[in-house]
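Researcher: Next entry in the queue.
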Amino acid sequence: MDERRIGDLLVEAGVISRDELERVLARKPEVGGSRVLSELYALGLANERQLATALAQRAGAPVAVLSESTLDLDALVLVPEQQVRTHLALPVAFDARTITIATPNPDAPGLIEPISFVTGRRVVPVLGLHDVLEQVIERAYGALEQGAEVLRGERSAHWTPRLELAAYVPAPALEEASGIARDLLGELSIATPHRGVPIGALRLKRIMVEAPAPAAAPAEPAPARTATPLELAAPEPTSRPLAVVVDDDPEIRKLLCTALRFDGLAVEEAGAGDEAIALLRRVRPSLLLLDAMLPGVHGFEVCAALKTSEVHRALPVVMISAIYRGWVQAREIQEVHGADHFVEKPFELQYVRRLVADILKRPPPTSPTPAAVAARLEKVRAAYDEHAAAGLALAATADVDLWLQLDPFDGRGWLERGNLATQEQDWAGAMAAYEAAVVYDPSLVVAFVGLAVALEQLGFVRRARATWLRAHSLAVDVDVELRARIEQHLR
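Model: Structure for this entry, 491 residues:
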C-alpha cells in the first residue's frame, strides 16, 4: 500500500496543483488523510472518480464511485436506517449470499456484525467518500419514499443497477496474478496435479493438502504476558458434552447457543469476561467458544489463564473475533495466546457447528437422508466432470448449482463455482465462491490462489496479499514452482 499522503498522490497525478493542496491544508490544518478528499470535493477541485482512485491507491482497497453508479434501492430496505446513518454505511449491491456496503470506515466497531446478522448475508465492505455518502444517503431515502426502485448517479450511464468502483492495482501485478491462475488451467488429457484430482478443461487445478497434525503442547507454555492460571471446578456428571459460549453480543450468543443445543450439546453462556471466569470456576466444559473482545476481562486474558493451568490447558478454546482478522493474526492468536482455533466474524454458522463436532469427535451435522444425498452428489459430480471436460459451460454451471443445493457446505463445490466465475471474469462472484471454499475446505490451495486473484482484480490489495501468503504456506512440498511464483509476485 502506498503510505504517502493522498494529496501528494493527487498532485503527482495532475489532478490538483501543489499550491491548491497547500491552500486546502492551510484552510483546515486538522484535515488529513481521506478528509482532504472531502475538502477537495466540496471546493470542486476534483471529481469523485479522481478522488476515489487516489483513495484506492493509498488504502489498498476499492472505492465506490457513486456518481457513476445506479443503485438498487431494495438493498437499502435490507439494512436498518439507524445503522446506515450512524456509520454512513450505504448498501450499494446485494445478492443471495452477500451485501456490499460503502462506508468511510469499514473497520468501525459495531458495523459488520449487525448488518450480517439482520440481512443473513456476508458483508463486503468497500470504501466511500464521506461527503458523497452523506449526500447519496439522503437522496436514496428520499427516492425510496417516492417509490423509486433505483437511484441513478448524475454521471451514471446505466438504467439498471450497477456499482462502479475505483481500484488501484498496477497493471504488471494484475497480469502476473492472472498468469499464475492461467497456468493452473489445463486440459483433462494433458496433466494431473501432484496430489488430488484431474484438471478439468474449465477448472483451475485443485491441489489438495492434508491438514498438518497439531503440534503437541509444550511442557511449559509461554504466553505473551503473565496470566493467572484459572482453575476450574470438577465436572458435573452429564451424558452430553458441555459447551460454554462467551460473547457480549446477545444475538450472536443466542444464535450459537441455539445451534449447539440443537446439535445435542449442553450449553452454558456468559456475556462478559468476569462472568465467564465465574462460570468456568463452577463448571468444567468440553469446549469453550470465546469472543476476543469482551467488557471487563478480555477473551485473550481468559484464554491465556486457561492455557497456563497444568490441569486444564487441554480444554479446546475457539476464539471468535471481529476485530482481529486474517490468517496472519489468526496464527498469532493461536500461537501467542494459546487458542486452539480461530473464527472470524461474521462467521458461517454451519462452519462453527462442523468445527465443534470435529473438536468433540461427534458426527457432523448432516442431511436427513445422507445416503440418498451422497448417491445423488456422486452422480452430479460425475456429470460436472464430464461437462467440464467437454467445455460445456452452461451445463457445468447447472451441475454446480445442483451440487451446492445438495450440499451447500462442500468446499470443492464452491471451488468449482469460483473457477467457473473466473472463466467468465465475474470477479465478485469468484471472490464470494472462493471465500466459501476456503472456509469449508482449508486444504484447497488453489481456492486460496483463486481468491487472491479475484481480490486483486477487485482492488482489495491488502486482503489479496494476506491470501497469497496463506496459499504460499499451504503449497509447502506440494508445488515448489507455485511457491516460487507467489514469492516473486509478493516482492
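Model: The mean pLDDT is 77.
Researcher: Noted, moving on.
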